[in-house]
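agent> Task received from the user: take the single chain below, predict its 3D structure, and emit structure tokens. No templates, no multimer pairing.
agent> Plan: (1) validate residues, (2) run structure prediction, (3) serialize to tokens, (4) report one or two observations.
agent> Step 1 OK, no nonstandard residues flagged.
tool_call: predict_structure(input=
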Amino acid sequence: MAKETGRKMIAQNKKARHDYHILDTFEAGLVLTGTEVKSLRLGRASLVDGFAQLDGGEAWLHNVHIPEYTQGTWTNHTARRKRKMLLHRTEIDKLVQKSQESGHTIVPLALYFKDGRAKVEIALAKGKKEYDKRQTLREKQDRRESERAISAVRRRERA
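)
tool_result: status=success, residues=159
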């Protein structure tokens, strides 16, 4: 069997980029059971309510929903158990230092396979206020409208 290469996306947390200012991102491995990996290979997971917590020098991923494997037996996993993340000591120390500042949290952004191994992209983030969210949406709409106007002008020039 050929070795898996590349990056295969399983789940993304689009709401995190809307609700938080992303300050820094990290890639972490995950400690999973066999049925969890099989369920992920089917492309089933949800990061919506997920968050990371640092406890005793270890990083843990909470509330990430990986549904039970349908062909699993009594060895099946629970869907929302806490899962250990594998990070370098320097990354954990940096996260501990930054997350203790007020308003900072660690959220998962993406869950994917990289060269056959399950990885999670986590971000050190600061929560947005309601007016920040509206400002971001306004900037996005303005950018989209200006791109449309520019493309319309270019189309007219070609015609």
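agent> Step 4: summary for the user.
The first helix runs from residue 14 to 19.
agent> Done.
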